[in-house]
Predict the 3D structure of the following.
Amino acid sequence: MLTSAERGPARVPDRVLRDLPKVCLHDHLDGALRPATVVELAAAAGHRLPVEEPEALGRWIRASADSGSLVRYLETFQHTVAVMQSPEALVRCAREYVEDLVADGVVHAEVRWAPEQHTAGGLSMAEAVEAVRLGLSEGVLAAEDAGHIVSVTQILCAMRHAERSLEVARLVVDNRDRGVVAFDLAGPEDGFPPVRHRAALELLADELMPVTLHAGEAAGIGSIRDALATGRALRLGHGVRIAEDIEIEEEDGVAVVTLGRTAEWVRDRGIALEVCPTSNLQTGAVAAFGTAPERHPVDMLYRTGFTVTISPDNRLMSGTSVTGELASLVTHFGYGLEDLEQLQRNAAAAAFLPLEDRSALEGIITEGFEGMHG
């Protein structure tokens, strides 16, 4: 495997990255709020924040996420979720989410969130889903009026440690023609396997609804196997610990790669990994490989043929974006336009869209990157 130094200096200027057409597959709505929006919504809802000035709140959230303390990391979501309990708040957050995608050069995104966490203000889960749908639609229409191409769909999450997954699965099915494209299990991965949600997963399989499960982040290979076998996952949320099922040895100066059975299954069948590099470092998902960005196994996975896609996970908590994550790959692994284009093609091909829409998305990517090459 070539190191970034062996591949030479980065070839993509920072000014180019934001204009590249990008696809985002793993992005949490409650982790993508603007600090100023959190402050305003908290004041309206009577929710007390640890810091009440937007820039200072943003710094506090990022410091908490970087602290190495799971308690402090999760506390940040308590504040964002708390201000997303009314239709008006959900509409606003969804609309601003689309605006931020456009500013980031994203042409297609699948935003995920857990409706069961947004009923404290009296909303039903169905009403919450409709509010987010409305906000996303407003954002997309405004973007189109301004001359920007963007599409956004929803992935509904059920919480692994809760008991409402069957309700969420039914909500996914009921809204399949209203912009909801898939189901996810989020929350604590270790100790809460997909088998606890068998009824929901069987319903989704019977209804031929796509599933992408968080797996290979807080737990290892066994969790990934379970997501594939029990969950019938078509993509893996994060999935980076699949790298623990790979051995690389040097023989006469040549890298020899040996894949375990699970890694072989994932790679050979093109099961997309929704990799979120900055978040993975914050949560310790890749601690076995090191704590520095250049030690993240994303490059090894990409170079050994896995279907790697790149997303921010939680824009607010990680202080990042799709552009920011790609910039890190350029800096730490020497990625050039060809690499970045392949990552976007991977994401377009893995999107939960009809074949015709995926083909059109790939065309947008091709055209956008050709313009940069030229």
Summary: Residues 125-145 form the longest helix (21 residues). The domain at 10-33+84-373 is CATH 3.20.20.140 (TIM Barrel). The CA atoms of residues 194 and 277 lie 24 Å apart.
